[in-house]
Amino acid sequence: MAISVEQAQEEILGYIHVLGPERKPILECLGQVLAEDIHAESEIPPWDNSAMDGYAVRAVDTRGASEASPRVLSVIDEAAAGSPSQARVARGMAIRIMTGAPLPAGADAVVQFEHTDEQIRRASMEDASHIGILRPAKKGLNIRNRGEDIAVGSRVLPRGTVLRPAEIGVLASLGHSTARVVRRPVISVLATGDELVDIDVPLAPGKIHNSNTYTIAAEITRYGGIPRILGIGRDSMESLNEKIDESLSSDMLITCGGVSRGDYDMVKNVLAQRGQINFWTVHMKPGKPLAFGMIGRDRSIPHLGLPGNPVSSMVTFEQFVRPAILKMLGKENLAKPTVLAIIQRDVTNRDGRRELVRVTVTRHGREYHAVPTGPQGSGILTSMVKANGLAIIPEDTGGVKKGDVVRVQMLDWSRSL
Fold first, then answer.
1. For the chain, what is the radius of gyration of the CA atoms?
2. How far apart (Å, rounded) are the C-alpha atoms in residues 204 and 164?
3. At residue 87, what are phi and psi to the nearest 5 degrees?
4. Are 174 and 196 in contact (CB under 8 A)?
5. How confident is the model at residue 263 (pLDDT cuts 50, 70, 90)?
6. Residue 386: helix, strand or coil by DSSP?
7. What is the phi/psi pair of residue 374, to 5°?
8. Cβ distance 408 to 393 under 8 Å?
9. Exposed/middle/buried for residue 147 (C-beta within 10 Å: 0-12, 13-18, 19+)
10. In 114-266, which residue ranges form alpha helices assigned H by DSSP?
11. Do the strands 178-182 and 155-157 form a parallel or antiparallel pair, or are they unpaired?
């Protein structure tokens, strides 16, 4: 008996666990989840520094400054990032300073170049030993204070944080060259069927290229896993057992094909001998034949048997494998984003299954419009190329009419959004 999409998702995720940690260089950690808290052992910035190119001054010395009546100060030194000034700003003095340079002793404000007469003095070839301040400055003007970003001892990044470029930058600013993160799952991919040949092999009558392996491997990579390609398993117990043996050192096995009710669909039979099968049909279209269970005796791993039709394989991956990978990675948000969109064509649904219709979603003002990509056959892989979403047509509705509002699971946001 077929189960609902939600039941299948719950069943699968109940067997999935967060993987263990690994330590690796921070640039290799992008997209992974921190497995430890990161505390600051130093302050960021480590000293007061200039937020602008300008002149470090005492604010009191700029009182009453204006373009009509500049406050002229003696320039005693110059400071740059990496080359701080050792001089002290005393009454009537200024130090020319670049962005990021430590604030010189005695200074409490930085007046940016645009609020001085530096350009006028340079144009007239005047002595650079003095500068005219054209606006009064308040204490703290254009100064980045020591520790204003990160205080010493603070928890900067909590365990469970997904590392984006900003978090990688924070790790680097704290002097961390490595990070301890939840490791990426290694997922074996096995396509099955005597009709399949490798993609670089010329096609003989009755043969097709093995596209599913590459589609699924790309999906695994996209969502943070590491694909291990096992090649093609032939329609024999010996071949399938040999390939399954290769998969048992990975964290999950995905097979494509061999899970329907056909006479030559023996994958589920082999799996039943090697482990357990929890279910093999889901109340959805495309993708009704879907096997799930645990495989292996001494070390069991989850197995998901996807349908052989390429669209069915991709759609079931999005619904079931993708959230499993994300959970293994330690991520908490497992759902795809959804939008409400106005369907632009009638869609019938007469067989009582939840239908996921490939659509192109575009934005028109405040509204989203969803246009089916054309014929919805489960073998038409180009329908996925044209789609950026899956319109969800509920079970037992009979379909939707043009102009109805439907919920759309977004595959990506790259199409006019």
1. 32
2. 47
3. -80, 160
4. no
5. very low
6. helix
7. 125, -150
8. no
9. middle
10. 118-123, 165-173, 211-222, 237-247
11. unpaired
The stretches of 2-138 forming alpha helices (DSSP H) are: 5-14, 118-123
In degrees to the nearest 10, what's the CA dihedral of 149, 47, 81, 143? 70
Rounded CA-CA distance 198/204 in Å is: 12
The residue assigned the tokens 């290229």 is: 209
How far does CA 93 lie from the centroid of its chain?
51
Q: Is 377 exposed, middle or buried (0-12, 13-18, 19+ CB in 10 A)?
A: exposed
In the chain, the amino acid numbered 53 is D
pLDDT digits (tens, 9 = 90+) for 286-327: 998 888 999 987 789 999 999 999 999 999 999 999 999 999
Closest of 197, 217, 218, 195 to residue 209, by C-alpha: 197
Q: What's the token pair of residue 70?
A: 């500049």
The pTM of this model reads 0.87
Tokens of 339: 């939008």
Amino acid identity, position 128: A
Packing angle of the helix pair 237-247, 267-274 (nearest 10 deg): 60
